[in-house]
Amino acid sequence: MSGLQTDARQSTGPLLEITDLKTHFATERGLVRAVDGVTFTLERGKALGVVGESGSGKTVLSRTIMGLLTARGVELSGSVRFAGQEILGLKAKEMRHIWGREMAMIFQDPMSSLNPLMKIGRQIVEPLQIHLDMPSDDAKATAVRLMKDVRIPEAERRLEQYPHELSGGMRQRIMIAIALACGPTMLFADEPTTALDVTVQAQILDLIGEQRRDRNMSVILVTHDLGVVAGHTDEIAVMYGGRLVEKAPTKTLFANMKMPYTKSLLRSIPKLDEPSHTRLATIPGRPPDLVNPPKGCRFAPRCAYARDRCHEEEPVLEVAEHPEHVYRCFYPVGSAEFEERDEQVKAELAREAAAVRAAADQAAADSAHGDVPLAAQLMHGKDI
Amino acid sequence: MTIALDDTLTTSDEPEQPPAAAKKVRSRRQIGFWFGVSWLVLLAVHAFFAEWIPWVRGEQEVPRVAGPDGELIRASGYRFGPGLDFWFGSDALGKDLFARCIYAARLALTVSIVSIGGALIIGGTLGMLAGYFKGWIDRVISVLVDALLAFPAIVIAALVIGRFDSLQASDIEFLGFGFDWLSRRWSVTIIFLFLSIAPVARIVRAQTLSLSEREYVLAARSLGARTPRILVREILPNLVPAMVAVIFTGVAILLAAEGGLAFIGYSVKPPEASWGLMISENRTRIDDAWWATVFPALMLFLTVLAFNLVGDRVAKRFDIRETSL
Amino acid sequence: MRYVSQRLLQFFVVFIVVTFIVMVATRIGSADPVRDLAGGAVSDQQIARVLNDYPYLDQSLFLQYPQWLLDFVTGNLGYSYTQSQSGLAMFQQRLPPTLFMGFWAIVIGLAIAVPVGVYSAYKRDGAFDRGASYTSFAFISMPPLVIAVALLFLVVTRTSLFPTVGGSSYIAPWDSPWGHFRNFFIPSLALGLGLAAVWSRFLRADMNLTLQSDFIMLAKAKGVSPARVLWRHALRSSVLSLITSVALQVSALIGGAVVVEQFFGPRGIGDRLVFAIQQNDILIIQAITAVLVVGVVLANLIVDLLYAVVDPRIRHARKLG
């Protein structure tokens, strides 16, 4: 049955080895280098967080590894070894035995990712019947067990319901149940919580973590939010402009991040201990054009710490104090050059924060007079 | 299509066509477009200058040609098939089918283009007003379009044209004018015009609606430009592509309708020439005189196809969707 | 339920508008509808008979309409004085051929459109897709009249299977299946090919959209085979749009039937309508148009119901509404 000669569950060595992986899209504008030479390995049972902005290539990376990008105009190169077996470039026909059975994926939007016209039961049972040839009664029982595993109350009744009858959080749990159905060794979670309420987000992440430990499954968690990966991964890889720019064990990264880009990502997360009107630091500018990426460091045009060299020459991956910590920067956080600039940056941020606070106070005073701000009116349309 | 550097790229399975394939598709579309344009130009020149073109005989002319023994004979009784003398063959009365097909094209093109032109003026104005001001015109148009969708226009057209015949024959006067002028030609044009108003209005309305939300219109309005000025200076010029698409697709539909109407006997009457009428007159002789049926049908098909090809290209180019027509 | 009543109201308005327009149209240029109805130059006796049966005919249009409407809904479908036949008898004789023709045309249309549309979407931009796209574009540009000529020239005259032009007549399938096929195949095909062209393009476009949606990606990621993704996951959601398109084509189908019945036969309701228009048989014209509009409206209502069967979301929303 399996397209793999070795069973992923028994092989030794890292579960996933990615070497110089490139995913390029041929378009009318030119070649879009969505993933441009990414290398890393992932041990079994470990969780890796892949973090980056929209357009950094993180979603394309996960879909490339899983082999879901097979359309015309997609050029793949490099190597993806899964359980010691090369799987990059396998045909969809060969990958089908891996999909769902060895590798599974949880998508971002549980609203659109479940088939709206199919009962939930059928959607969970489908992979069980396809891969494990389960008779329908067994499959149903397994589906109920899976739904209980992901803490869906009244599982039997849900089997007969359609996705639109469930809340977003419940749907995401269903997606997890579908992904876990055949006991995969590798789970991709592509922004699994972005579409959910904050309170539900933590539950879903805990659920994924718990299932990972129970099943000794490897997880790649793709997100734009460093906060999401902080407590739920063993390692973090930061992507920018199709490249891996920093990778380290989670604790090391948060304790000692090297890339100014990673630092900016961290600054853009709200913190509980700051006053309520503190402005979140946004990263100025747009992600790089992947058709014509900048000549030097890809982040240089948006980097407050960039110097001439950064615009001319692209840094290679350096190893930091911790041997598993790599980064791609000439003037990393903590270097003398960085500190020199940091004074200015911090002062700038403080000035902006003060201005924003003042504006917010003014707005609060205005709304006390009963005016509805124009922006709010626009957002509510003609109902106001 | 440009690539937005966000997740729209990364979530679509089939992001873009490779450039070579895209170019091929474009050039193939071009072939269709240029075929359409050439056919229409050729046909229009023949149709509207038929009298001055030496190889087009008269509509009612019964030519005499050299027979097998060298003497001049008439071509009556479907005597000649397609050949050098009669490109499309001859018909029962010995008339030249090629010439009749050309005169039929003149009829079909005039009727369709005049109707669509009129419908565009009336329906376009209504649609623009409805799209800009919304309100009751909107509702009237949508009821009329629904009604048209619920009932085949060819039946209404046949019905009204039949009644127009009696109106022409009667001595009824309206505002002191009689109805002697109301020939079949006019009847068909008038009813086509009326039937086209609501669908044209609907398309123009949809376009106006989206245009009036555009930033430059909002900007003009915020600068204090008055409504008539906005409609004429900002919205009307931007409606032109939609109107061009409407003209071509609308004419294609009306040509087909004229064919059907003529076939059931409600376009021009014999001996005038119309494609549908020729098919109706000659189809029982398809066994021995296939040309008299096949060529008019072919002309109808190619002309409708040409208008559709051009209209489709314009609509695709400017991203205009036909909600109905 | 509010949804259903809204739709009903909309259909009712359409019915009123169409039937009223038709009534007005039948009276254009006519000094004396009663005389028209009795068949032109006729005796006072005959006119008296018409007026006795339909006393409202010499009143103003606005007074006539409600009385006609009352007649129609109470089952008085008019009378043809020139043919000495009641509207009801006329429908019994003329409706079945048209219904069969329309039914077979839809069957043929779907039988071609579904496989072609699905396969085109599956092998997008492949040779088959391109070929199908050109072919369907050509067929969309062929009015039923042109398709009829093509079938006549290419099929009917080259085989001895089918009746010659204008020779198709009504044979019920339960009387003689073969006879039914001989008489109905060509006319139904003339209508069905055009429908197939419209629907296959429609289905292809909709499937292309569906195939890009996230739930298709998920199905793929589950390891579902392409055939299953196509037929079980994608087609089901595209069927909804196809159903709408089927309903939208019903009125075009009637228009086509008017032409095709004249061309090949069998002589059904479309043929009778043209004859009634020639004869100025205004009560029959009104009855036929009204029945046809009801038919189109019913088709749309059925689509609305089917929608709910196929799409649980709509079932759900309507229950709430």
Going by CATH, the homologous superfamily of the domain at 101-317 in chain B would be: MetI-like
Terminal CA distance of chain A reads 61 Å
Shape of chain B: globular
Determine the oligomeric state from the structure.
Answer: heterotrimer
Identify the CATH architecture of the domain at 1-90 and 235-271 and 287-332 in chain A.
3-Layer(aba) Sandwich
Please provide a brief summary of the model.
The complex is a heterotrimer of chains A (about 375), B (about 325) and C (about 325). Chain A is an alpha/beta fold and about 375 residues long.
Can you characterise this structure?
The complex is a heterotrimer of chains A (384), B (325) and C (321). By secondary structure, chain A is α/β, with parallel strands linked by helices. Chain A has helices spanning 58-66, 92-95, 110-113, 120-132, 136-149, 155-158, 168-180, 198-215, 226-230, 250-255, 260-267, 308-312, 336-368, 374-380; strands at residues 16-26, 31-42, 47-51, 74-82, 85-86, 103-106, 186-190, 218-223, 235-240, 243-249, 318-319, 326-327. Chain A is globular and about 70 Å long. In chain B, 65% of the residues lie in helices and 2% in strands. A two-stranded antiparallel ribbon of chain B has the order 1-2. In chain B, a hairpin with a 5-residue loop joins strand 1 (64-66) and strand 2. The longest helix of chain B has 37 residues, at 97-133. In chain C, helix 5 crosses helix 11, helix 9 (214-221) packs antiparallel against helix 10 and helix 13 (282-310) crosses helix 14 (312-320). Chain C folds into two domains: 1-82 and 281-321, no CATH class; 93-268, MetI-like fold (Orthogonal Bundle), CATH 1.10.3720. Chain C has 14 helices and two strands, in the order ααααββαααααααααα. In chain C, a hairpin with a 4-residue loop joins strand 1 (79-80) and strand 2. Chain C is 76% helix and 1% strand. The interface between B and C is large, with 60 and 60 residues.
